[in-house]
Design goal:
- The protein is built from nine helices and five strands.
- It has 267 residues and is mainly alpha-helical.
- Strands 3-4-5 form a three-stranded antiparallel β-sheet. Strands 1-2 form a two-stranded antiparallel ribbon.
- The chain is globular.
- The chain starts with a helix and ends with a helix.
- The protein binds heme C.
- The site of heme C has 21 residues, from helix 2 and helix 6.
């Protein structure tokens, strides 16, 4: 019986922890700045997405990132998950021209995208992507926040982690370090020399809801959007997690009462 109660308590702790999200933060592992850790709506036991923020994140993705990065597996209809109406999603899809065909004359043609089309990829193939980006292929972003350790914090820090010159701490680690031509210095990218130039500058875009588009705001919104793309079911998972947690607490309480009942005459 005691063992059962212990198992119950351990399960409660484990469920609580797994819902807790990215509480602990690993040190940067180098002499440079540690990962930034803004507050995320999707963190913790009551993690959720805010639809206004998801829409802003899509605006950042489509205005800034989409010219180089695709969102593999995502279709325009998935954007309904951000809180857009059917009509709005149709209008968003229709604003993109995609290639289709061949037609009856055997020719490829372009047409406006519809909701059932996959979100338009920026490059036809990796070779073209490489040519356009100094030899590096901009990776698919739809699962990026799960593909990297501390994904949301990492992508946020990466977007804000550019430096004009090479900081002193890098030269303390490696006096020979220099940024190769065509690359940029980034505090958080492994090896610090990244083929993606800095993207987020004040004033590069405007939000349709009037929010001021500071680099921090754009980074936070686009990461929230990418987290949603990687885990649209988060809210369902957390709902289930909370249900399991309450169940386990009640169950452990029942076991405890039961134990006392059985042992009450034994003392
Ligand atoms: C001009 C093209 C271009 C644009 C625009 C662009 N990126 Fe990139 N991005 C790249 C390239 C190229 C790489 C690969 C970098 C490398 O391997 O050195 C990359 C890599 C990345 C990575 C992966 C880093 C890693 O750890 O491997 C992330 C995350 C990323 N970009 C996010 C974004 C976001 C978010 C935006 C929009 C705000 C954006 N990018 C806009 C070209 C671009």
């Amino acid at each position: 019986m005691k063992t059962l109660i212990r198992i119950g308590t351990a399960a409660i702790l484990a469920t609580g922890l797994s819902l807790g999200g990215t509480a602990a933060q690993a040190a940067g592992g180098h002499g440079g700045p540690e990962l930034k850790h803004p507050s995320w709506t999707f963190d913790g036991l009551f993690g959720h997405y805010n639809e206004d923020q998801l829409k802003r994140g899509w605006e950042v993705y489509s205005n800034v990132c989409a010219s180089c990065h695709g969102l593999e597996y995502m279709h325009y209809r998935n954007l309904k998950g951000l809180g857009y109406t059917e009509d709005e999603v149709e209008a968003i899809a229709a604003s993109f021209e995609i290639e289709d065909g061949p037609d009856e004359w055997g020719e490829m043609f372009t047409r406006p995208a519809t909701v059932v089309d996959p979100i338009k990829e920026p490059y036809e193939n990796d070779a073209l992507a490489k040519l356009a980006n100094g030899g590096a292929v901009p990776p698919n972003l739809s699962v990026m926040t799960r593909a990297r350790d501390h994904g949301p914090d990492y992508v946020y820090s990466l977007m804000l982690g550019y430096e004009a010159g090479v900081p002193e701490w890098v030269h303390e680690e490696d006096p020979e370090f220099s940024v190769p031509p065509g690359k940029s210095f980034n505090n958080y990218f492994p090896g610090y020399a990244i083929s993606m130039p800095q993207q987020l500058f004040p004033g590069i875009m405007e939000y349709s809801d009037g929010t001021e588009a500071t680099p921090e705001q754009m980074a936070k919104d686009v990461v929230t959007f990418l987290q949603w793309a990687a885990e649209p079911e988060l809210e369902k998972r957390k709902d289930l997690g909370r249900y399991v947690l309450v169940f386990l607490i009640v169950f452990t309480g029942v076991l405890y009462a039961y134990k006392r009942e059985i042992w009450k005459n034994a003392h």
